[in-house]
């Protein structure tokens, strides 16, 4: 199938071509007869939302992909719904070129085995413990013999109390210039068995980060570790959060039943990126703090699985003071995680007569 592109930037077109698709670049909308049985990809800069109905009527026998460029969390849900009603495929803002390629594969039902090593942690709200849980998993994965890099990618909170010689904002010029090397990752802060990149200390630069920079950092980190753990934080309005949602091989949401009202819009937002409840696993933090809604009821409502429940402890400095039983439970989950990433052999399943 040919893809007729109107308004897409050349870098993205090159990425689509490298993925094996045939792209025909257009300076004006093509004739409907040209695109019959093919795909027409247009951007919101060239075709405003008000012209979508007319576009659909003009190309009744073509698949249409609408790339919406206006940034914002709240502004595009209604437009996505409008596209759905017209039978038009939708790409949300902040989507990287690789995310667009994956969407094209999804539309054209192309299956390709691609096993990543990025484990993304997302919080349902500030203070839920996303950073602490990400550090806990990084520590236990490292204890299982894997080379681990933990990236602090919550652009609103560095996740580290002290200013360090290396951090996301200090590394950013090398990300922007695509100059990262192995030495940059060797110089990260050494924690309990893993290397840690503290996040962004320059709060005024949050909205300056670009999706391509974060994607580049993740790709380079992936080549320097067996497992990359990333703390993407709890605030969706950042380039890192969007890229994390798109690129993570495993998506873990740290939450609590009292955040039920936060989970609803979070799951709705994920749906616009073609992610659904089964694409997430939840970690219930402070599970022994009673609430009106139980974790079980939370699962029944939203449809995601609970990976782990962690109890509440009195305030601590850096790492969760877990007991042997809890650590063993976490290590079991870590082993399952490593198996899913192709980094550990499957455990022998004991049958009923064994």
From TrEMBL:
Protein name: Pilus assembly protein CpaE
Gene3D superfamilies to which the protein is assigned, alphabetical: P-loop containing nucleotide triphosphate hydrolases (3.40.50.300)
InterPro entries: P-loop_NTPase (IPR027417)
Superkingdom of origin organism: Bacteria
Species the sequence originates in: Paenibacillus jilunlii
């Amino acid at each position: 199938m040919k893809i007729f592109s109107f308004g897409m930037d050349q870098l993205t077109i090159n990425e689509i071509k490298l993925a094996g698709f045939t792209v025909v670049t257009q300076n004006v909308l093509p004739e409907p007869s040209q695109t019959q049985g093919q795909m027409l990809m247009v951007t919101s800069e060239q075709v405003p939302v008000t012209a979508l109905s007319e576009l659909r009527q003009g190309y009744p026998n073509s698949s249409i992909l609408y790339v919406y460029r206006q940034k914002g969390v709240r502004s595009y849900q209604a437009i996505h719904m409008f596209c759905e009603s017209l039978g038009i495929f939708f790409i949300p803002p902040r989507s990287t070129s690789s995310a667009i390629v994956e969407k094209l594969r999804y539309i054209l039902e192309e299956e390709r085995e691609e096993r990543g090593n990025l484990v993304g942690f997302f919080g349902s709200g500030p203070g839920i413990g996303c950073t602490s849980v990400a550090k806990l998993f990084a520590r236990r994965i490292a204890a299982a013999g894997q080379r681990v890099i933990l990236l602090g990618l919550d652009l609103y909170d560095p996740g580290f109390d002290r200013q360090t010689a290396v951090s996301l904002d200090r590394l950013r010029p090398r990300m922007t210039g695509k100059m990262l090397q192995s030495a940059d990752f060797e110089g990260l802060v050494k924690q309990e068995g893993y290397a840690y990149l503290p996040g962004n200390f320059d709060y005024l630069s949050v909205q300056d980060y670009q999706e391509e920079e974060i994607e580049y950092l993740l790709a380079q980190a992936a080549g320097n570790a067996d497992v990359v753990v990333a703390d993407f934080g709890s605030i969706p309005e950042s380039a890192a959060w969007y890229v994390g949602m798109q690129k993570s091989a495993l998506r873990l949401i740290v939450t609590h039943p009292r955040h039920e009202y936060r989970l609803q819009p979070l799951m709705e937002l994920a749906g616009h990126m073609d992610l659904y409840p089964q694409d997430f696993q939840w970690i219930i933090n402070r599970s022994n703090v009673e609430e009106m809604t139980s974790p079980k009821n939370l699962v029944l409502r939203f449809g995601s699985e609970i990976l782990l429940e962690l109890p509440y402890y009195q305030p601590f400095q850096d790492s969760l003071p877990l007991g042997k039983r809890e650590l063993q439970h976490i290590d079991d989950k870590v082993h399952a995680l490593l198996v899913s990433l192709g980094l550990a052999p499957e455990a022998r399943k004991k049958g009923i007569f064994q």
